Amino acid sequence: MSEIAVVAISVAKPGYEEPLREALEGLVGPTRKEQGALQYDLHRDVEEPRRFVFVERWESQQALAAHARSAHIAAYREAVADWVEHAEIRVVSKIA
């Protein structure tokens, strides 16, 4: 197994900043309890408060895949479908 990291960015549609923030915060507790979750931290962009950024570390690609299939992620996606203007997920591996 090799550790991987994820940077996940979600940009709220205007007027949906706080509902999206609350929904994202709701992912933190359940995700931190998942097998293979090493780090799952939510941040808010200082200059663009509609932009939220998760910085994540996972034990393996398999752990991340299980997270993507989890019930709380599925419920989140359904709940916020109309609140998100843009979402981007980057999976990276540490090189130095």
TrEMBL record:
GO molecular-function terms, A-Z: monooxygenase activity
Pfam families cross-referenced by the UniProt entry: ABM
Superkingdom assignment: Bacteria
SUPFAM superfamilies, per database record: Dimeric alpha+beta barrel (SSF54909)
Entry keyword annotation includes Oxidoreductase: yes
Domain ABM: 4-93
UniProt entry keywords in alphabetical sequence: Monooxygenase, Oxidoreductase
Record-linked PROSITE patterns: ABM
Entry protein name: Antibiotic biosynthesis monooxygenase
Protein species of origin: Paraburkholderia aromaticivorans
